[in-house]
């Protein structure tokens, strides 16, 4: 018997690569044959192109609303990716429907804007499309956290979508606590952000929110438990959004909305109710971009003594000088550096291997 010669590492690697190429070629050929057959069947069964707006997305299916206000559930072509609430799409109806599927989405219109957030598994993930304004909801319960507000503001500034701050559940505030909260909110008012105080229980501020939404595509964002879904129920009594109270054990908000959904407002415009998130990561942004997104910092950018100024203890830092002169708030300055620190941690987590 002839003794088999041991292969070198390079030879083993090349053999493995060639094997993988042959498998990939075979799989591709099989897939193309299957897709061609499926596409031919679908084409024979489909009508003319129509336009619609995406109401909600469920895996490879989406609920859409036609120009005639008809709600249909459609399959999504494999060539069409990243469909979200608010997208304007083109679809074709099935002449013979398959179960609850009434057609196929063929393509997506170009977006005027999109709300995104980073995801460890999917990179930057789109949450909603064609949004005119973002209503950032916070509350005294589970906790009033300006640091979360600043995270959302950075995201809004980066995306170029108008943010509006809403403090919910103000009926829970006593006079002293209200005064403290107002002093913090005055910081945001002072740099040009709109701020509204509301209460579903008493109705305070609800009319003001309604006027903001007229003829706009709006989305509510905020931590779980701050009352986003309750606000939607107040604004849209027929929507029947599920709500839950804040967990008594953890003090954290419980997720109630599981998928984003677009609702029409009686006064005109659309409102997207999105799943609550407790943290809004910004690790996909560059530090210089985050600095720019603190809009009261902008007039000082480029004027520091050192080009790579970290705006912390660097000599000749104009932002530090503005802080000392009271032109920049200590709260915002501290939150800015907390965001930069969390971005480094987020990037480390994104690079860590998943098991």
- From the N-terminal CA to the C-terminal CA, the straight-line distance is 44 Å
Number of helices: 8
Low-confidence stretches: 1-5, 25-41, 242-257, 351-355
**Radius of gyration from CA coordinates:** 26 Å
Number of strands: 13
**Largest β-sheet summary:** 6 strands, mixed
Task: Summarize the SSE layout with pairings.
Elements: H1 9-44, E1 46-58, E2 61-66, E3 71-76, E4 88-98, E5 101-108, E6 114-119, E7 123-129, E8 133-139, H2 146-159, E9 162-168, H3 175-190, E10 194-197, H4 206-213, E11 217-221, H5 228-235, E12 261-264, E13 270-273, H6 287-293, H7 318-324, H8 330-351
Parallel strand pairs: 3-5, 8-9, 8-11, 9-10, 11-13
Antiparallel strand pairs: 1-2, 1-4, 2-3, 4-5, 6-7, 12-13
Structure description:
The chain has 355 residues and is of the alpha/beta class. It has helices at residues 9-44, 146-159, 175-190, 206-213, 228-235, 287-293, 318-324, 330-351, and strands at residues 46-58, 61-66, 71-76, 88-98, 101-108, 114-119, 123-129, 133-139, 162-168, 194-197, 217-221, 261-264, 270-273. Strand 6 and strand 7 (123-129) form a beta hairpin. The two termini are 44 Å apart.
């Amino acid at each position: 018997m002839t003794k088999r010669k041991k292969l070198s590492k390079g030879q083993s690697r090349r053999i493995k690569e060639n094997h993988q190429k042959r498998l990939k070629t075979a799989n591709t050929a099989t897939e193309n044959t299957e897709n061609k057959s499926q596409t031919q069947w679908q084409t024979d069964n489909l009508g003319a192109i129509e336009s619609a707006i995406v109401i909600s997305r469920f895996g490879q299916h989406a609920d859409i609303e036609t120009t005639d206000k008809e709600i249909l559930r459609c399959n999504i072509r494999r060539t069409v990716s990243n469909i979200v609430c608010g997208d304007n799409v083109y679809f074709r109806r099935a002449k013979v429907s398959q179960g609850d599927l009434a057609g196929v989405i063929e393509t997506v219109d170009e977006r005027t804007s999109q709300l995104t957030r980073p995801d460890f598994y999917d990179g930057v993930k789109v949450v909603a499309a064609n949004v005119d304004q973002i209503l950032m909801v916070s509350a005294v319960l589970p906790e009033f956290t300006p640091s979360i507000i600043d995270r959302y503001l950075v995201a809004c500034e980066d995306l170029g979508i108008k943010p509006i701050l809403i403090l919910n559940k103000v009926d829970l505030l006593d006079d002293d606590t209200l005064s403290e909260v107002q002093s913090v909110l005055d910081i945001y008012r002072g740099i040009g952000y709109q701020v509204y105080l509301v209460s579903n229980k008493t109705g305070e501020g609800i009319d003001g929110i309604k006027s903001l939404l007229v003829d706009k595509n709006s989305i509510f964002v905020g931590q779980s438990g701050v009352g986003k879904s309750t606000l939607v129920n107040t604004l849209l009594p027929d929507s029947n959004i599920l709500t839950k109270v804040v967990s008594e054990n953890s003090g954290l908000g419980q997720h109630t909305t599981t998928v984003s959904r677009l609702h029409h407002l009686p006064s005109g415009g659309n409102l997207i109710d999105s799943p609550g998130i407790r943290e809004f990561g910004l690790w996909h942004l560059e530090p210089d971009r985050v600095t720019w997104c603190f809009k009261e910092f902008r007039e000082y950018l480029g004027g520091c003594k050192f080009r790579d100024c970290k705006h912390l203890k660097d000599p000749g830092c104009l932002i530090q000088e503005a802080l000392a002169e009271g032109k920049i708030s200590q709260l915002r300055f501290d939150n800015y550096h907390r965001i930069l620190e969390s971005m480094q941690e987020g990037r480390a987590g994104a690079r860590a291997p998943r098991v």
